[in-house]
Amino acid sequence: MVQTKMLLRARLATMALFFISGALYASWGLHVPTLKEKFALSEIMLSVALFMVAAGPISIMTRIGAWVTRVGGRAACTAGGLLLCACLALLLFIPWFVLLLPLLALFGMSAGLMDVAVNAEAAAVETALRKPIMSTLHGVFSIGGAIGAALGGLALSAGITPLHHLLFASAIGASVVLIARPALLPPVETRAIAQPRDAWRGLWLLGTMACIAFIAEGAMYDWATVYMRDSLHTQYGTAGAAYAVFAAGMALGRLCGDPIRARAGNEKCVLVSGALACIGMTIALVWQKPGTALAGFMLTGLGLANIVPVIFAAAARIQNTHAAESIARVAGMGYVGFLLGPVLIGVIAHLTTLPIGLSLVAICAALIAGLGPRALRGRVRRN
User: Which of 253, 134, 132, 267 shows the shortest CA–CA distance to 206?
Assistant: First the structure.
């Protein structure tokens, strides 16, 4: 009974951290235009700023895993969460762009640390419970992002200044992190592991799948609205719905993902998910009508929803590895895809057309359906 209550508290605390992570990242996203206006940034300089956020975690991801393993999930989640809140609170205090860049890199690093720490904690709770929960927790992250963006938009519309909004969001985030801390699983003693060749091969396969999945996700978040506006010539409101329906599909798919994983298994889940995303994107690009495109984007979100949670859960359970280090290596490769995806779409679109560029998403989904089950096969036996 005591063990059951402890695991329930740990699950709820981990869920709270996923939720607040999504809300904090959405708060940052709301103020990208604010930073552009404050520092009078051109598109090129804004791209440099956004690159710093993405490059920050990639630069230290391998070290993050070892550190999280050494200090434990409880300490790592607390440190990552508080550092993320501090960086968010300072964003609009910075007076010069040259100082903003290192702060954005630190913000990206803290987001990466939080990402690895909460996923390692989720994997530990999932293993202890002996049932899938990872997809649901990633769904909670998506819900946190949606609610954080909605509340932030309402606050700004009500006249609250961007600075006060970020300070308030950071204070709420720090409070949630500190309240959740005692309920997280206690640290366990770990020892160094000499990772055999099979373990490295498994991590590279899963990391490659994560990179492909993040290429598709990043492209959808950045280019779906542009496709609706420029290729299908819709109004701004209809074009904005592309992002909304894709995000809704992601959230819905993740909230329904754990029962599917429990019934069908990880390999079949990834196979069906990749196929569904490929079909959805093909529908959106071939039948170029606004309503059909939105339906296709919804299917694409449903398909992509559970691929990364399944990959992270599998990475955490590879034999002869520490969960945090495995997740960090796989996530690091995934972040490279998230960074490259929108750029690749833009280059292909510039050389050809945007629909041809976005076909990369369908190709990525097909690769996941074809190669994902092989990457997962036999790599999740550790309990």
Answer: 267
Q: What is the DSSP letter of 302?
A: H
- What count of residues does the chain have? 383
The model's pTM = 0.80
Tell which residue, 84, 75, 90, has the closest CA to residue 110: 84
Alpha helices in the chain (DSSP H): 2-30, 32-38, 43-71, 73-90, 97-129, 134-157, 162-180, 197-226, 236-255, 257-264, 266-286, 290-304, 307-316, 323-351, 354-376
Domains, the chain, with CATH or none = 2-183 (1.20.1250.20), 197-376 (1.20.1250.20)
- Whole-number Å distance between alpha carbons of 286 and 273: 20
What token pair was written down for 265?
């298994």
Q: Cα(83)–Cα(89) distance, rounded to whole angstroms? A: 10
Could you write out the DSSP letters of every residue in 183-213?
GSPPP---------HHHHHHHHHHHHHHHHH
d(CA 219, CA 345): 7
Residue 32 vs residues 26, 27, 49: alpha-carbon distances, Å: 10, 9, 9
User: What digits encode the pLDDT tens for the residues 309-367?
Assistant: 899 888 878 876 777 788 888 888 888 887 777 778 878 888 888 889 889 999 999 99
